[in-house]
Amino acid sequence: MSKSLKYQDITDKIIGAAIEVHKFLGNGFQEVIYQRALAVELRKAGMEFAREVEHDIYYKDFPEPIGTRRADFVVEGNVLVELKAITMLEPVHETQILNYLKVYRLEIGLLINFGEKRINVKRLILSQPNHR
Fold it and tell me: Which of 69, 81, 86, 76 is nearest to 111 (CA)?
């Protein structure tokens, strides 16, 4: 019996678009090239997304932001997508996206690495009560 994952329809489309980009470009390009190509594929798939949008970073209950960070993509307002173009993902990259999910107040993220011979996609979930 297959259990549906939260926002699986969105993440499946994003992953399909990323696979299409990797099939055409392969590995070896800078991250920005993959980012631009993925934007083309997301548009073709009819998905709404924001690219390189500044998000405020808040610390605990401090009322003012302590800085900002740009997400590669936020798709359909619900899924954070972080791209890499490196030879191998490391645990620090997963920690990074989980931290981004926390400060952006999102629950689901995709970490996509185009730098490997085969595309590497990790789906991460922020399992934290009161994250919204």
Answer: 81
